[in-house]
């Protein structure tokens, strides 16, 4: 029932007006001219709209099924996955040495938005594979890379990440899965893993599991954990598939959403595995892909909300209900369209101004990852490390809220499954949880990232804001609508950071009690910065008489909405933070 | 998987410490001594915890089914409904002339919280019946009352409300269902109604539909609509059931939640109906029950969230994950319970401080309804009319958010349907939509209720706050923690009202663009007032050395949390309101 159109115009604006990617001095970036990226996004958008979006409801409705140990994906998923493979969409930003197209990550991310928005559950099969590819690419031996990467780049084989166990989620130090070294250098892996997305399915020949497990001598903490490659089918020397490994699907979880993705309980019963990276350094290997993986989840948060928003706009334009308070807008009809009503607009503008800001932040994040990798830019690396928990936590929380708002536009019809709006809400809910629940993101931000490198990255972020304000302070309209709200929001963020520094010394709970609010405060400031930059870029384009005037004026109006109506949240978060630990920690555990 | 315990201690606090009901000079109130209400709540709580709660997941999982035009409810619903009937729980606050127990509404509402919290979908069958009972009781002829009410009080017959049609939701003026007058004084009703909760099922002998329809001569607007009684089975003169009426179930909707309730498309094909109340005055008849119905939905919002909260607390106490930053709390175990972590407490305190404030507001609302009815108190009637959209809109929005937070405590486990946390989120979502979507509540508040009676009710509300502050200003601790935050929040609300008065004259969109924020701003101030009163009541009890000291101290600490951490939202809502209509209305409809 829902439809999806690729927001290519807006993506092009972010890539070229905001980030000016083809002008950046980064390997591969100079090829990214507007015509080139548009062609890519057009083709990806066509696949998303015409193939993946129509399967979204099918996937939700049918779900995956487990029969005799074999997982079947919903009708149409297999054929669509073939189309994705054949179109080369799985290989976009992969290493050409292993069959990839070698494009920058920012392009992979942009295409990923289109796929995730149109069908999140489906796109996860490829997304997980890309994560596993990255881990093997970064930490694998030459032999491992040669064995696994070409097939994973093409998604002939897909990948998974196996972290969680029934009793060990965030606290991986408690995991019990064991790895016993064998004489031939391999390990026998035994244990149970849960919540394994894309854990098994019928769309690829093989599934390459990356499994965290404890090998002897590593001790009890997370520091002693190692990472292993455990293929579903063992791979022969010649690359052909050999025996079935001792790994099986214990159960398929019945979930709130993303029904089209197979979330498995995986049982490892002495399965053959090979160490990936260094022994007892598995967590470090995991963390090197963390920024990318978490950015990818932040992207899911706003991507699904974008799809929900598009359908809400269509409904608000078409559904006739009530009359505009300022006079009939549709006098010939029985009523005016919903979109005439101020509160419907308030709802839609909340969504639109968030979504476009979120896209800018996610694409900027991808650019920073490219810069860190391609130019070995330490400043960019530090900055994206700081921003990662914000992107993951803030964009998924707000993305979910945004999808709920989109559903609300439909009134009672939004609650009926057939309409598809409920699915957006149910699907986007998981993004707040997996890849580190958002409370853990907040803890990472305040407990680790703020103080990292002696606080240099956060100082650099504040300097960036100052510079932005300074660069445009001669522009009176920009000053009133953008620079002053940004300055005020940024002051709130600084005050919060200061509070943590002063109070956190005395009582770590004082900082941690405010961590979640700090993540949201930071998110608003980051989006405020994005909107200020986008406003400046739009004004520049207007001044130069480039392109579609209406597009740039709409961009400015949307930005003004964000600054006027969303940014005031920073003061609230600051007030909550500054109330300290006492209200939060006051009760004994048995008084809740 | 989830459990539910009746929060009787807290209810008793609200009834007796806060509202002091047995001391109120209202008919029937002086019997409501603490021992008496406790006995009632204990018995209702037992039914809720032991019978209804275990059926909650069953109802969600099985849902209702439609076979050959007959709706079947989930396993166990019928027997539970019998228990509810036999226990007299459907008759609690009904008129003794028709078999009711004649208790005040506040007691009916308190019991209703227990039932809705434990099984919202199930309780709706009785709730809808109560609504239809109230309409017939208020507007029916003596003959109609004698025919229908005794059976509806006992829920041998259940009731429904038929408003919405496929093309007409909020805008009831567009409805097409026709009523043709017959010679015998009855009407033939023809048309289609959708989203009819409890529209048909197998738990009662008859279903009494109240149907809005257009009879000749009423014109096209909502003013010409009439309300009809349309029974599923016609009732013979002797009260026995006669022929099947021409009303049938067209479809059973597949919904996001409340699967245990049968949401029907109802087809009326010349069904026999009888006018209820005056011809062409159907909307007025509907509106007389509106305060009660909307208060009931506001109650659902926080009641389901209360159940979710209880399960989140249990999980947070039992789940071992990570270590407290201030030193191991459970050194003998492999990890500390989640509840040691500040961010988990922040999450739980957000829920707890909202829920207890919400309960106070809802119970106060029920008391005001009693006062309006039993003492014909116009001031109370005006005040509850003003508060009704706030109670409905704010408590359901925040109740949903609260359920989402409870789900978050479970991490990945919260996303698995078997755990039951997803159901709380999915069920509570509907409360934001039905009985007037929350945007419509905001419109009602700002567009109608604020200016009602020349603004007297809102002025009276502000006076109430002033008086509360004045009454306790000698108490330094109360002043700092409660009175000052309340004063500040109340100022924000006044400033918002002032803004609407000044700007709304020039541009109605300026007021309507801020209506939703005003509803939330008002909600926070109302809960701030409740918390201030509860804090004063708790201090009084402590000073008098009454009861459980720990309970009252916990109450004070929870109130301090609300004032410090939730009330700062008022400034954000004010800022959003004061940014006016421009950001909201800036875009042409085709630029979204």
Automatic annotation (TrEMBL), chains A, B:
Enzyme Commission code(s) on record: 1.3.99.41
One GO MF term, please? flavin adenine dinucleotide binding
Q: Could you tell me which residue ranges the Acyl-CoA dehydrogenase/oxidase C-terminal domain spans?
A: 281-444
- InterPro entries listed in its UniProt record: Acyl-CoA_dh-like_C_dom (IPR025878), Acyl-CoA_Oxase/DH_mid-dom (IPR006091), Acyl-CoA_Oxase/DH_mid-dom_sf (IPR046373), AcylCo_DH-like_C (IPR036250), AcylCo_DH/oxidase_C (IPR009075), AcylCoA_DH/ox_N (IPR013786), AcylCoA_DH/ox_N_sf (IPR037069), AcylCoA_DH/oxidase_NM_dom_sf (IPR009100)
Give one Pfam family, short name only: Acyl-CoA_dh_M
Q: Where is the Acetyl-CoA dehydrogenase-like C-terminal domain?
A: 461-588
- What is the enzyme's class at the highest EC level? oxidoreductase
Q: What is this protein called?
A: 3-methylmercaptopropionyl-CoA dehydrogenase
Residues annotated as signal peptide: none
Reactions it catalyzes: 3-(methylsulfanyl)propanoyl-CoA + oxidized [electron-transfer flavoprotein] + H(+) = 3-(methylsulfanyl)acryloyl-CoA + reduced [electron-transfer flavoprotein]
Q: Is the keyword Flavoprotein in the record?
A: yes
UniProt keyword terms in alphabetical order: FAD, Flavoprotein, Oxidoreductase
Main function: Involved in the assimilation of dimethylsulphoniopropionate (DMSP), an important compound in the fixation of carbon in marine phytoplankton, by mediating the conversion of 3-(methylthio)propanoyl-CoA (MMPA-CoA) to 3-(methylthio)acryloyl-CoA (MTA-CoA).
Annotated Acyl-CoA dehydrogenase/oxidase N-terminal domain ranges read 38-156
Identify which cofactors the protein needs according to its UniProt entry.
FAD
For the Acyl-CoA oxidase/dehydrogenase middle domain, which residue ranges apply?
A: 161-269
Report the family membership: Belongs to the acyl-CoA dehydrogenase family.
UniProt key word Oxidoreductase? yes
């Amino acid at each position: 029932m829902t439809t999806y159109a690729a927001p290519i115009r807006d993506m092009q604006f972010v890539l070229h007006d905001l980030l000016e990617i083809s002008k950046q001095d980064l390997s591969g970036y100079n090829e990214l001219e507007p015509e080139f990226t548009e062609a890519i996004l057009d083709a990806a958008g066509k696949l998303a709209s015409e193939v993946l979006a129509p399967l979204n409801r099918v996937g939700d409705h049918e779900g995956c099924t487990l029969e005799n140990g074999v997982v079947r994906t919903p009708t149409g998923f297999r054929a669509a996955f073939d189309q994705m493979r054949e179109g080369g969409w799985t290989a976009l930003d992969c290493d050409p040495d292993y069959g990839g197209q070698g494009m920058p990550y920012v392009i992979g991310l942009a295409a990923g938005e289109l796929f995730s928005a149109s069908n999140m559950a489906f796109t996860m099969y490829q997304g997980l594979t890309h994560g596993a590819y990255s881990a093997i690419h970064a930490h694998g031996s030459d032999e491992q890379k040669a064995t696994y990467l070409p097939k994973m780049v093409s998604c002939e084989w897909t990948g998974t990440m196996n972290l969680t166990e029934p009793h060990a989620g965030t606290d991986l130090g408690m995991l019990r899965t064991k790895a016993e070294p064998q004489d031939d250098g391999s390990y026998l892996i035994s244990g149970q893993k849960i919540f394994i997305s894309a854990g098994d399915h019928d769309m690829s020949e093989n599934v390459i599991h990356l499994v965290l497990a404890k090998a002897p001598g590593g001790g009890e903490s997370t520091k002693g954990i190692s990472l292993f490659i455990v293929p579903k089918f063992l791979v022969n020397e010649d690359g052909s598939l050999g025996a079935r490994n001792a790994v099986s699907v214990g159960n398929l979880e019945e979930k709130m959403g993303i029904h089209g993705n197979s979330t498995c309980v995986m049982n490892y019963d002495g399965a053959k595995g090979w160490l990936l990276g260094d022994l007892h350094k598995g967590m470090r290997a995991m963390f090197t892909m963390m920024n990318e993986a978490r950015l990818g989840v932040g992207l899911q948060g706003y991507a699904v909300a974008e799809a929900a928003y598009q359908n809400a706009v269509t409904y608000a334009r078409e559904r006739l209900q009530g009359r505009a308070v300022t006079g009939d807008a549709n006098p010939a009809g029985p009523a005016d369209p919903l979109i005439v009503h101020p509160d419907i607009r308030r709802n839609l503008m909340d969504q639109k101004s968030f979504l476009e800001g979120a896209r800018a932040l996610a694409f900027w994040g991808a650019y920073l990852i490219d810069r860190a990798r391609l130019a070995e830019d330490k400043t960019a690396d530090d900055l994206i490390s700081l921003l990662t928990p914000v992107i993951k936590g803030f964009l998924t929380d707000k993305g979910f809220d945004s999808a709920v708002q989109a559903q609300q536009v439909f009134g009672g019809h939004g609650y009926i499954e057939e309409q598809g709006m409920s699915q957006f809400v149910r699907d986007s809910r998981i993004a707040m949880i997996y890849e580190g629940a958002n409370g853990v993101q907040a803890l990472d931000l305040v407990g680790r990232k703020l103080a990292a490198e002696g606080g240099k990255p956060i100082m650099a972020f504040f300097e960036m804001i100052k510079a932005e304000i300074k660069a445009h302070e001669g522009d009176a309209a920009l000053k009133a609508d953008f620079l002053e709200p940004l300055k005020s929001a940024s002051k709130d963020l600084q005050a919060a950071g200061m509070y943590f520094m002063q109070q956190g010394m005395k009582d770590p709970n004082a900082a941690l009690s405010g961590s979640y609010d700090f993540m949201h405060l930071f998110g608003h400031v980051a989006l405020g910065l994005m909107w200020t930059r986008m406003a400046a870029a739009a004004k520049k384009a207007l001044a130069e008489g480039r392109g579609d005037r209406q597009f740039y004026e709409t961009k400015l109006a949307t930005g003004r909405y964000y600054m006027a109506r969303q940014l005031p949240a920073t003061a609230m978060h600051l007030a909550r933070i500054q109330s300290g630990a006492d209200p939060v920690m006051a009760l004994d555990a048995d008084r809740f």
